[in-house]
């Protein structure tokens, strides 16, 4: 089968599109024929050796797929060959086939196209977990989403609205803000034209921000730390700007807010029942029209480098999807 292979940590253009052995369905595993694979920012970090997880070489990146079950391993009874499913694979998704733990797949309704289903797992599931389990966001609270036109940022805008929050989208261009507005954002802030700290401090009747879904890091994170409301929750999602900020802990002490890490991959391992329930709720919300996957572009598998460069360059509005 064909796959994208990382032979060593290196720039994106050293990824190889090549023939490798097809996976087999071991005990508790299934093999999926991949119909579409989601592209995520951590994938680009991982193949360059910049992510916290460093797999042994060679490896195939890609953590989320939509596909059809083509083989079932010993002990697997919850699915059968021919079933359409969403799979969280961890690795291996950028390929024509992938082996996946049976516990990490969910039935895929016919109402959800492959290209959208493949991107429903990581971005939307991260936002859902962050706002539900980590922030416990409540109706009427203010939610600021930085990088609000990216895959997980846009998901947070949608899910925040579904959970009853007032959503403030923070982006670098008007074009991106328009996308966030079309997905439910109530207030738009262009941080290249407006002073972010000043704008955030004015929210919530001048009391600051209840919840921040912070994807950017760098100067954006620094501004958010100064604008939190009492009992606020500053959610750490990622560092798309490239600078991992340092946090002056006295701010949390004086202002009485929490800084909360969000690592969805660990959540799925530590709380599998909550993960499964979250995914069922997300799929229900999708079918009810409360959330949707905005696909920026569908790219052939052999052009993975181009898709990753677009994601890493923060030029994506929504999600990039690979098609084997």
Automatic annotation (TrEMBL):
Molecular function via GO: oxidoreductase activity
**Which CDD domains does this one have?**
QOR1 (cd08241)
Q: Enumerate the spans annotated as Enoyl reductase (ER) domain.
A: 10-322
Q: Which SMART domains does UniProt cross-reference here?
A: PKS_ER (SM00829)
Cited InterPro entries: ADH-like_C, ADH-like_N, ER, GroES-like_sf, NAD(P)-bd_dom_sf, Zn-ADH-like_protein
Q: Which PANTHER family does the UniProt record give? A: QUINONE OXIDOREDUCTASE-LIKE PROTEIN 2, SHORT-CHAIN DEHYDROGENASE/REDUCTASE
Q: What is this protein called?
A: NADPH:quinone oxidoreductase family protein
Q: What organism is recorded for this protein?
A: Exilibacterium tricleocarpae
């Amino acid at each position: 089968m064909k796959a994208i292979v990382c032979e060593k940590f290196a720039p994106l253009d050293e990824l190889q599109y090549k023939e490798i052995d097809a996976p087999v369905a071991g005990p508790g595993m299934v093999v999926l024929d991949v119909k579409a694979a989601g592209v995520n920012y951590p994938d680009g970090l991982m193949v360059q050796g910049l992510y916290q997880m460093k797999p042994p070489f060679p490896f195939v990146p890609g953590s989320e797929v939509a596909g059809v079950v083509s083989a079932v391993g010993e002990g697997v009874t919850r699915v059968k060959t021919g079933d359409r499913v969403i799979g969280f694979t961890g690795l291996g998704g950028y390929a024509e086939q992938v082996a996946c733990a049976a516990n990490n797949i969910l039935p895929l309704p016919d109402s959800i196209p492959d290209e959208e289903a493949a991107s429903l797992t990581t971005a939307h599931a991260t936002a859902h977990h962050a706002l539900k389990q980590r922030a416990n966001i409540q109706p009427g609270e203010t939610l600021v989403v930085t990088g609000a036109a990216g895959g997980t940022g846009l998901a947070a805008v949608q899910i925040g609205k579904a959970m009853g929050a007032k959503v403030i989208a923070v982006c670098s261009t008007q074009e991106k803000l328009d996308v966030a507005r079309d997905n439910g954002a109530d207030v738009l802030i262009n941080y290249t034209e407006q002073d972010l700290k000043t704008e955030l401090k004015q929210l919530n009747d001048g009391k600051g921000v209840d919840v921040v879904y912070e994807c950017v890091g760098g100067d954006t994170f620094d501004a958010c730390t100064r604008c939190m409301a009492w009992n606020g929750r500053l959610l750490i999602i990622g560092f798309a700007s490239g600078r991992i900020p340092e946090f002056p802990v006295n701010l949390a002490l004086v202002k009485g807010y929490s800084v909360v890490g969000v690592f969805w991959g660990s959540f799925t391992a530590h709380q599998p029942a909550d993960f499964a329930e979250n995914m069922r709720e997300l799929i229900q919300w999708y079918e009810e029209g409360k959330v949707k996957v905005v696909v920026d572009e569908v790219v052939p598998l052999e052009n993975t480098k181009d898709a990753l460069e677009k994601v890493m360059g923060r030029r994506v509005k929504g999600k990039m999807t690979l098609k084997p």
